[in-house]
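Sequence design from tokenized structure. All designs in this work follow the same two-part layout: the structure record, then the generated sequence. An example of the structure record is given first.
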């Protein structure tokens, strides 16, 4: 065999058989190319596979070039790529739908705010803004604001005078107890109040307005007028009724004059320990104890430590011009019978007897008072507690001549509180006897 023929045979053999590792052989003549897919009528062949002719990710129609638009998703309309939907915050304001610049317009500009062509105008010296597709204003002049978020009227709110936006947007002046329409001046609510009410507190613009919030008839801090406090001078417990300070006094003092709302309160201004016409209280008058002698009884002569009306000499005990009696320790004795404080001697038949204000004598533990008229137990009467006519705070009882609370409600003079064993407790502080919890939560 010629060399050329041998080489031809060898090449043919190598083309058909390849020796693999471990003595294996492979016949490459058995492999054949894969067949080309056959696509349906609505499909096309792209990248070796069938896809929809309307799949914009592979182009539209016969093309396999993907459709793409700025700020938008694409869609196929027939065999043409067009804009499907714009991305949030963008719009196809120029109307082109053939692919050019896509959704080319931002909707957060003052010339296209929220929708195409919506122009935000600056007004009242403000600067137009567009935030999240909503027109607004910035750089409003001092005292003005765009409170309604309507760019067409600019910085429409005058914060110095607008009663619906007083001092700041969204802060209306309250109409609580207000006569007429609420008013705003210099950014503060200045209402005309109904009778008996006052605009005594002025919340700053960070807080809601409260109108005419103070009831001047019963507020110890604003009694009869704003900022007119009921004084604590010689006072056991402050109180205000009908615009006047009618505070309960400490023993030995009387709230005998109650200044009008136009004047400062003076607390319990009168010492009633030694005053004949105000003995123990403002209304107990020793001059009325002996109808025969207006000067017979005096306050300083009373036998009790809290001072009640009493005699000084034997002649003070003669209550009807004929009955004789003796005076010992400020109290009369009639025909051997010791009288109660404040009693005089009058004839009862042929003998003298103790009498209270022209009537019968008082029983054990009682005192004869001018006011309230008659016999009174000063140990347990809340209307004459410790002295004739000395009243306790509303709801309080009287024990051993001292005012005491009976329940938690008695302690609440505007500041809550609780009652225990006759004493009020305010904010964890036990008060002195007779004191209550004031609006500030303190004893007084």
């Amino acid at each position: 065999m010629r060399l050329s023929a041998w080489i031809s045979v060898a090449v043919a053999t190598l083309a058909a058989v390849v020796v693999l590792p471990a003595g294996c052989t492979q016949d490459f003549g058995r492999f054949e190319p894969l067949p080309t897919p056959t696509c349906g009528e609505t499909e096309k062949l792209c990248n070796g596979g069938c896809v929809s002719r309307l799949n914009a990710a592979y182009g539209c129609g016969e093309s396999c070039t993907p459709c793409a638009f700025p700020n938008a998703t694409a869609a196929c309309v027939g065999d043409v790529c067009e804009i499907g939907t714009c991305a949030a915050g963008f719009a196809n304001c120029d109307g082109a739908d053939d692919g050019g610049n896509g959704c080319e317009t931002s909707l957060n500009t003052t010339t296209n705010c929220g929708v195409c062509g919506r122009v935000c105008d600056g007004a009242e010296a403000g600067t137009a803004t567009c935030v999240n597709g909503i027109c607004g204003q910035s750089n409003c002049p001092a005292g003005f604001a765009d409170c309604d978020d309507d760019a067409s009227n600019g910085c429409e709110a005058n914060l110095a005078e607008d009663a619906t936006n007083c001092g700041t947007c969204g802060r209306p002046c309250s109409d609580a107890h207000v006569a007429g329409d609420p008013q705003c001046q210099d950014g503060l609510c200045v209402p005309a109040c109904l009778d008996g009410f006052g605009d005594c507190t002025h919340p700053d613009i960070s807080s809601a307005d409260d109108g005419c919030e103070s009831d001047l008839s019963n507020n110890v801090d604003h009694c009869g007028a704003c900022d007119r406090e009921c004084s604590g001078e010689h006072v056991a417990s402050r109180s205000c009724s009908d615009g006047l300070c009618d505070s309960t006094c400490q023993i030995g003092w009387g709230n005998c004059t109650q200044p009008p709302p136009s004047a400062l309160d003076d607390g319990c201004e009168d010492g009633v320990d030694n005053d004949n016409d105000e003995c123990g209280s403002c209304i107990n008058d020793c001059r009325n104890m002996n109808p025969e002698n207006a000067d017979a009884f005096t306050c300083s002569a009373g036998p009790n430590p809290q001072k009640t009306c009493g005699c000084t000499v034997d002649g003070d005990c003669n209550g009807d011009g004929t009955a004789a009696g003796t005076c010992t320790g400020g109290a009369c004795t009639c025909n051997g019978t010791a009288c109660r404080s404040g009693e005089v001697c009058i004839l009862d038949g042929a003998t003298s007897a103790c009498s209270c204000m022209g009537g019968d004598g008082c029983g054990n533990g009682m005192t004869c008072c001018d006011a309230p008229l008659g016999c009174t137990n000063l140990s347990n009467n809340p209307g004459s507690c410790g002295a004739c006519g000395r009243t306790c705070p509303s709801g309080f009882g009287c024990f051993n001549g001292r005012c005491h609370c009976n329940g938690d409600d008695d302690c609440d003079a505007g500041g809550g509180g609780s009652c225990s064993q006759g004493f009020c407790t305010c904010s964890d502080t036990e008060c002195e006897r007779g004191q209550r919890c004031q609006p500030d939560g303190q004893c007084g």
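Residues 91 and 105 are 5 Å apart (CA to CA). We note this feature because it recurs in several other targets discussed in the main text.
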